[in-house]
């Protein structure tokens, strides 16, 4: 029996990968640099959203096992990742 939380995290990652593959196919289909850049830029939004959703689901799943201090460290780490990804 697969854990529901693990299943949700896996499905989100499969969705993310499918979006990436679809974006690559669109780039090849359009065969234009400008459109490929727009598609690639759109992926910059999808990645962090999937990261946040997957991490949130995982943290909810282990919230009863985490101390408040460890939860704060995980939150700080995810915040650092997002700042690094989204900061221009």
Automatic annotation (TrEMBL):
Keywords: Membrane, Transmembrane, Transmembrane helix
Transmembrane parts of this sequence: 6-30, 42-62, 68-86
Superkingdom in the source lineage: Bacteria
One family name in Pfam for this protein: DUF2619
Protein name: DUF2619 domain-containing protein
């Amino acid at each position: 029996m697969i854990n529901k939380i693990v299943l949700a995290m896996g499905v989100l990652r499969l969705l993310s990968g499918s979006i990436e593959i679809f974006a690559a196919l669109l780039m090849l289909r359009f065969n234009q640099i400008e459109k490929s850049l727009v598609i690639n830029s759109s992926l910059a939004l999808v990645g962090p959203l999937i990261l946040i959703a997957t991490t949130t689901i995982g943290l909810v799943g282990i919230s009863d096992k985490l101390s408040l201090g460890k939860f704060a460290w995980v939150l700080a780490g995810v915040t650092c990742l997002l700042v690094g990804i989204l900061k221009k």
